[in-house]
Design brief:
Length: 243
Amino acid sequence: MSETWIILGATSSIARALVRRLAARGAGLLLCGRDAAELDALAADSRARGAGETAALTFDVRAPDSFSPILDAAQRCEGPLTVAVFTGSMPDQAEIDADPALIAPTLADSLTGPVRFLHEIAPLLAERGGSVVGVGSVAGDRGRVTNYVYGAAKAGFATYLSGLRNRLARAGVHVMTVKPGPVDTALTWGMTLPLMTSPEAVAGDILKGLKRRRNVIYTAPVWRWVMLVIRAVPEPIFKRTSF
């Protein structure tokens, strides 16, 4: 039976790289995002690459009322489902400091919106089986002065995925948390960041991690050790850092 993937934030760079791989192996795709024209183009490209049944569904992670068409489409799909969450936004911390109104949408994009969607689809996953791929960030491993609001959102999402993993494991559903370091995407354009990787590399790591049923992966893998060191720095020293 063909696999079906629900991709939230399907037009993001990492999601596009994953969709290309999934299409080539004939997966069914529910491509979900805000830009209808971009979604339609991505769906057409996926079909040309060999994807199974493919649909483009407009939704806004900040608007729970827009989730219903995706949930209805998922109900109509046969067999197990994999939900992959790529939604998120990362305003510059200085912008947030100047305008705290940016906090709510930042949390909605990376935390409260994805959590609401996953909670609504969890019963169907428990019934059908499948997987969840939640894309967080190494920024969630420790609050840093340069991006602590974004980091807080990703930390909260990682904690939620841990609990969801515990809940859905009883039904045989695998939940994997993905923690990329800096990736060459629209979020990082113009930034000079260390150990940057590509969307294609992250997509490959996601598929390998799922195959091996990993609970948490870092991509690139070196970030597991980098963040281990960063988490180990004592707080009196860490609060004097500026990275």
